[in-house]
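for the recovery benchmark. tokens below, seq after
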């Protein structure tokens, strides 16, 4: 029996009426996936101990193809990237916390706009510059993992290969890349540059694309003379934050979300950026109050703030 429906729930409070929607694609034996794009539903899932990133059962067929493809890209030498690791995977939470502490300690200094940020500040100031911003961002992020990390068009190309192989579609190209080992080579090169730390590989190849998007937004803000003169570095930094398009979860027991029933094994696609754009809920950006919170939740805004400060010559503002 084919079921592909959007479950609609109407919530009424003293102040407003809200319609919450989830989309469930369910064809027994073929696919069982729920897309979630409401902040309240996303946060409920993010706090639900029975919805995890263990990715045990891979049935049905299309679920299996999707999870296997993403896990293949987001693993290296038999180890999963932290963003695809279960909540209780050995050492995950300790490593997440250690990175969070380390990046938080570095955040105040980078928010002042040190000279390391000059290439990015120059890129923001010069809208006609042909320089690619990707390697400039990669260099700054990479240096948080290795003092000798040096980005160029080859390392940026590796990040683009990894990101492209995560995007839906392009099955034949992805197959060719898999057979030729292109994606594995890209990961191996970046892993070597960050001392084998998979959080580092994630940062310079996957998370980086959200930061690059933010830099393009910053350049547009800078071009507007009124905004250039009025936005504080904190305000500008906040306006350049983008959430990941999607993060993946899997139910380990049955339940319901927005009135939509799911069973053990159902995949849940949390559409964070869509949820943030529709609602303005900034907690979607880093899922900061949840077990999977981004360790860079303070460092990334501080870095963007530092770039704006330097670009506008607003040190000490
Ligand atoms: C705009 C930039 C970024 C955004 C919006 C962002 C957002 C997120 C989100 C939403 C998660 C949770 C994923 C999930 O629930 O499955 C996450 C996880 C993570 N992020 Fe970020 N991130 C950004 C940049 C970075 C950077 C620069 C780093 C490293 C320097 C980083 C390192 C990580 C790591 C290691 C995890 C996995 C944490 C764990 O569950 O153990 N992120 N990020």
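predicted aa per position
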């Amino acid at each position: 029996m084919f079921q592909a429906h959007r479950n609609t729930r109407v919530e009424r409070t003293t102040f407003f009426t809200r319609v919450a929607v989830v989309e469930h694609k369910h064809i027994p034996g073929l696919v069982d996936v729920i897309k979630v794009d409401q902040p309240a539903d996303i946060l409920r899932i993010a706090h639900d101990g029975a919805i995890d990133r263990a990715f045990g059962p891979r049935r049905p067929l299309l679920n299996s193809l999707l999870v296997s493809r993403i896990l293949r890209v987001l693993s290296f030498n038999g180890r999963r990237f932290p963003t695809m690791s279960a909540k209780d995977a050995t050492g995950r939470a300790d490593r997440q916390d250690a990175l969070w502490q380390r990046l938080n300690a570095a955040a105040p200094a980078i928010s002042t706009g040190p000279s390391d940020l000059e290439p990015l500040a120059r890129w923001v100031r010069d809208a006609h510059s042909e320089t690619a911003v990707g390697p400039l961002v990669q260099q700054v992020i990479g240096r948080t993992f290795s003092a000798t990390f040096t980005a160029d068009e080859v390392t940026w190309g590796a990040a683009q290969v990894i990101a492209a192989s995560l995007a839906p579609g392009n099955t034949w190209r992805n197959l060719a890349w898999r057979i030729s080992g292109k994606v594995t080579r890209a990961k191996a090169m970046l892993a070597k540059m960050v001392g084998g730390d998979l959080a580092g590989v994630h940062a310079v190849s996957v998370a980086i694309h959200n930061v690059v998007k933010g830099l393009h937004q910053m350049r547009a803000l800078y071009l507007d003379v009124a905004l250039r003169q009025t936005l504080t570095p904190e305000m500008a930094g906040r306006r350049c934050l983008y959430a990941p398009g999607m993060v993946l979860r899997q139910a380990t027991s049955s339940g319901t979300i927005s009135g939509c029933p799911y069973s053990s094994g159902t995949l849940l696609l949390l559409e964070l950026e869509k949820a943030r754009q529709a609602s303005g809920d900034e907690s979607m950006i880093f899922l900061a109050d949840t077990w999977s919170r981004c360790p860079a939740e303070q460092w990334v805004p501080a870095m963007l703030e530092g770039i704006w400060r330097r670009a506008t010559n607003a040190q000490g503002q």
